[in-house]
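Troubleshooting log. The previous structure file for this entry was overwritten by mistake, so regenerating from the original sequence record. Sequence copied from the archived sheet and checked twice against the printout by T.R.
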Amino acid sequence: MRSGLTARTQILQALEKQESDVKSITGSGKLSYRVVTYHLRLLEAERVVGKKGEKKPYVWQVTGVGQQRLLNSTEP
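Regenerated output below.
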C-alpha cells in the first residue's frame, strides 16, 4: 500500500472516531505534523474533510461527502 494512502486512512480513522486538531491526530498514530497537515489539505480540496471554526488550531471533521465515501468503500 502506498504511504499516502496509509496516511490518509489513518487520518480518516482518527476523525471518524472524533473531531480533532492536527496535534491530536499526530498523537494517535505514527504520522508527523507535516504529513498530517499535507494530507488534510488534500482531503479538504476533495471535500472529504473540513475545518470546524475560524480560529487556529482548526478542528477537523469528516464531511458528508467524506462519510458517504467511507460508507461506499466498506460495502461489498
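The longest strand covers residues 49-52. Archived copy saved in two places this time.
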